[in-house]
């Protein structure tokens, strides 16, 4: 692999990434309402529990633990955390606003001022250090009331609720925040709609009709947010955000290559095609036919999508996947909750996620070639069971190796001609895992002394990767040693 000297542009956006529901805690403070994430129990079985036909977002603290309720107490310790980000030299910090801090139930007409003031403080603290916020408007934290009383994104009424919410936060913060994203991993609804669309089995989590209709509603909401932003300031940049898993056919059998094409179209490209190109792709009707989906598209919907596409494509990249039509070969993989065949050419993380840096170079070329819009890697990282030694230090060379190989792949993609605007590795500070609800699945450059029950001192400690990433940023990616 060639070195990355002078490859990254001078204005490259180095930073880190988090989500409000996974680190803030303070889940009932200052008028905040419950979110969907607050109702998800912690532990490896959390998605089995929510997939039950009887699950209806009811909290049962006698039976389950809810790590999201406390998170890492970023709500009270944000100044300490942002100071650590500044010490690493972050140019940007990708975070999300908790919708239920602004509209506790989601359907109010007047926002919660205490919630708005909290994010004023967050953004001011970032700007004090010269860190630009990159804000996800909705990141797996829909107000629980909207899921329980309205049935989540399957209900078109949510378009109006989201538009009101987006208008409030964009008007409030547009002078402090230039970079926005409308939904986190919007295509995740096809695999785990509970977080992305607020759906459980009783409200359509098992129905492709409901999920695809929900996506249509989210596309409309996204376009409305783009319009609001550009009306406020044409220089604001609003992106979409998808999960991307580079997809390989199991072998050279053409039928498996067709399977890979179909997987790419349905999962990797469908949502971004609509949001980045402003229209449903050519293959959409075939998907709808095969999934027995009939979309309820109102007059003016398609015109709205066309008029207000996103400015850039943000995506998460953790792993690649392998597909085949052979059901006997197909095996369940843990990779970002996606199914796939284990790839014998790749190593995997402790959670079974296939580590594939070359797949990131392929992803960047595929996405840029398809959309010709700037790309932003807003999540990437290695979840691991870090161990704090007697000196309160973590020797996480495995994380450094992972990140180094992916940054090298980014440099090669830029050399290929890809317009890559930034990189914000996931969980730059340890936080509650979305997939398992655990603290023990750690991604951060900063260790947080809390266990899976959110017990411990909560103290922050710099890992070995902290100073390594600081050097990467200082040298603009030219020194990865």
Automatic annotation (TrEMBL):
<keyword id="KW-0326">Glycosidase</keyword>
<dbReference type="InterPro" id="IPR001360">
    <property type="entry name" value="Glyco_hydro_1"/>
</dbReference>
<dbReference type="GO" id="GO:0016052">
    <property type="term" value="P:carbohydrate catabolic process"/>
</dbReference>
<keyword id="KW-0378">Hydrolase</keyword>
<dbReference type="GO" id="GO:0008422">
    <property type="term" value="F:beta-glucosidase activity"/>
</dbReference>
<dbReference type="InterPro" id="IPR033132">
    <property type="entry name" value="GH_1_N_CS"/>
</dbReference>
<dbReference type="Pfam" id="PF00232">
    <property type="entry name" value="Glyco_hydro_1"/>
</dbReference>
<dbReference type="GO" id="GO:0005829">
    <property type="term" value="C:cytosol"/>
</dbReference>
<dbReference type="InterPro" id="IPR018120">
    <property type="entry name" value="Glyco_hydro_1_AS"/>
</dbReference>
<comment type="similarity">
    <text>Belongs to the glycosyl hydrolase 1 family.</text>
</comment>
<protein>
    <submittedName>
        <fullName>6-phospho-beta-glucosidase</fullName>
    </submittedName>
</protein>
<feature type="active site" description="Nucleophile">
    <location>
        <position position="379"/>
    </location>
</feature>
<dbReference type="InterPro" id="IPR017853">
    <property type="entry name" value="GH"/>
</dbReference>
